[in-house]
Design brief:
By secondary structure, the protein is α+β, with helices and mostly antiparallel strands. 28% of the residues lie in helices and 24% in strands. The chain has 15 helices and 18 strands. The strands form 4 sheets. A 7-stranded antiparallel beta sheet has the order 15-12-14-13-17-18-16. Strands 5-6-10-8-9 form a 5-stranded antiparallel beta sheet. The protein has a 4-stranded mixed beta sheet with strand order 1-2-4-3. Helix 11 runs antiparallel to helix 13. The protein is globular, with a radius of gyration of 21 Å. It starts with 6 loop residues before the first helix and ends in a 14-residue tail after the last helix. Bound molecules: flavin-adenine dinucleotide. Flavin-adenine dinucleotide binds next to strand 3, helix 5 and strand 10.
Length: 452
């Protein structure tokens, strides 16, 4: 790849770093969370502020480079980077400003959820955010935002108040209910299709600092019964509580397979204790770490299960009913998991996130049911074929039980080319109109693309 000799001259005001493959910092900067994605951008524009983001867009235009936008770099499909193009990298933009009186927080586009939670929890505040602390707020929010608080407060995007957007021509606008409302509608679900969110402003809520959370775990041999109990418990869940279940390996390296139930109850602690009691009694579990826990600690519980650089291939889709037959199939498929980093996670959807009308934001994922996330992770490249095959075969095995709903942020990199139309359903035509207006030549296309 030839280097650009006069890069600095082409963007004279740029205050961050403009890296090329010959620079020492390049190799680290090009890497994202998923080690399976090994792309080499021609230029990495590490931005320090909104003006740098605008300059990076203009630089991409000048050099006629394909552009990818990196927020937290967690996208499993690798949409945060590009071969031979420009990675517009927001990972140095990590500021969070909380207004405790107004209960709002504004965060720059490179902030991670653990950083956001740390700043907001200082004031006893939080908003719905990712369950793994190292995930970026920007990509997660613009695509949806599944998190522990969603039954009570909606998806992350339901809590977005405004975003400072750098558009495809390098201009900067604010999108909110009052300013560019059509753009504001589109970015709440439409991902990075419409521009780059240099900063995002959220509504926050009083949460914790102590909630009822954590997990219990059972031996895999009991998984059929545990998952039926989990399903029946989900049916009784109020908006205060989110539940998830995971078929996973013990983190101690023993190779023992487990079935965990996780809860996050953000209501009064006495209510949380009452809700948790039958979950702690069932079985009984072989491990019980459920009870009062700081909200930010609860949000870090899963971080260790997702090591940076591990090789990842995921498939995810909803089931509206978790039938006994589906449970049986999932347990059988987990038995065949090829690596101790593999998991099958069931994220329960109900409450506020599911009640928002499908057309009021671009996000069409407004269902009740379970998001089945087949997480294939491994560390040795020679296991790649097996790792990918297991996820695909597991997805195929549960096909009879699947609803058509899929989460755009969990979509695999080799999904069908018309995936966006299926994902956005009734909102797709309106999204295309917004795309024609804000990005008519599809500059922002390294994403689940909405074609103008
Ligand atoms: C271990 C792990 C745990 C996860 N947990 C959750 C979870 O709990 N809940 C959930 O909802 N999702 C979860 N996800 C999925 C997550 O939502 C997506 O991976 C999301 O894309 C991550 O955002 P990011 O900013 O880190 O991604 P990146 O890889 O940086 O970017 C992903 C996409 O978003 C766009 N984008 C990024 N930043 C910006 C920006 N500032 N402006 C405009 N577009 C931007 C990019 O162009 C790209 O298309 C998880 C993923 C992983 C790997």
């Amino acid at each position: 790849m030839p280097t650009v000799a006069n890069l600095a001259e082409l963007a004279p005001g740029f205050s961050g770093q403009l890296l090329q493959p010959t620079d020492a910092a390049y190799d680290d900067a090009r890497r994202i969370h998923n080690g399976l994605v090994d792309k080499r951008p021609a230029v990495i524009a590490r931005c320090l502020g909104v003006a740098d983001v605008a300059d990076a867009v203009k630089l991409a235009r000048t050099l006629n480079l394909e552009a990818a936008v990196r927020g937290g770099g967690h996208n499993v499909a690798g949409k945060g980077t590009v071969d031979g193009g420009i990675m517009i990298d927001l990972s140095l933009m990590r500021g969070v400003q909380v207004d405790p009186k107004a209960k709002t927080a504004r965060a720059q586009g490179g902030v991670l959820w653990k950083e956001f939670n740390r700043e907001t929890q200082l004031h006893g505040l939080a908003t719905t955010g990712g369950v793994v602390g190292t995930t970026g707020i920007a990509g997660l929010t613009l695509g949806g935002g599944i998190g522990w608080l969603m039954p009570k407060y909606g998806l992350a995007l339901d809590n977005l108040r405004s975003a400072e957007m750098v558009l495809a021509d390098g201009s900067v606008v604010r999108a909110s209910a009052d300013e560019q409302p059509d753009l504001f509608w589109a970015i709440r679900g439409g991902g990075g299709n419409f521009g780059i969110a240099a900063s995002l402003e959220y509504t926050c809520h009083n949460v914790g600092p102590t909630i009822t959370g954590g997990l219990v775990a059972h031996p895999i041999q009991r998984a059929n019964d545990v998952l039926k109990f989990f399903r029946d418990t989900c049916a009784k869940a109020t908006d205060d509580v989110m539940l998830a279940s995971g078929l996973l390996f013990a983190p101690d390296g023993s190779g023992m397979k487990l079935n965990g139930i996780l809860i996050a109850h953000c209501g009064p602690l006495a209510d949380g204790e009452k809700f948790a009691a039958p979950i702690k009694a069932f079985g009984p579990p072989v491990m019980d770490a459920m009870g009062p826990i700081p909200y930010s600690v609860h949000n870090g519980l899963l971080d260790g299960a997702f090591p940076r650089g591990a090789l990842n291939y995921w498939k995810a889709q909803f089931v509206t009913e978790l039938s006994d037959a589906c449970i049986k199939t999932l347990v059988e498929r987990f038995e065949a998991a090829p690596s101790p980093l593999c998991q099958i996670v069931l994220e329960h959807f109900h409450g506020a996130a599911s009640r928002v009308p499908v057309t009021s934001t671009a996000c069409a994922m407004r269902v009740t049911g379970f998001n089945v996330v087949i997480i294939s992770q491994w560390t040795d490249p020679k296991d790649t074929e097996r790792g990918i095959a297991w996820a695909r075969e597991t997805h195929a095995a549960i096909k009879p039980f699947l609803a058509p709903v899929r989460y755009v942020n969990y979509l695999e990199n080799d999904a069908e080319t018309d995936a966006a139309a299926a994902i956005y359903g009734p909102n797709y035509a309106r999204l295309r109109e917004a795309k024609k207006k804000y990005d008519p030549d599809n500059f922002f296309h390294v994403n689940v693309n909405i074609r103008p």
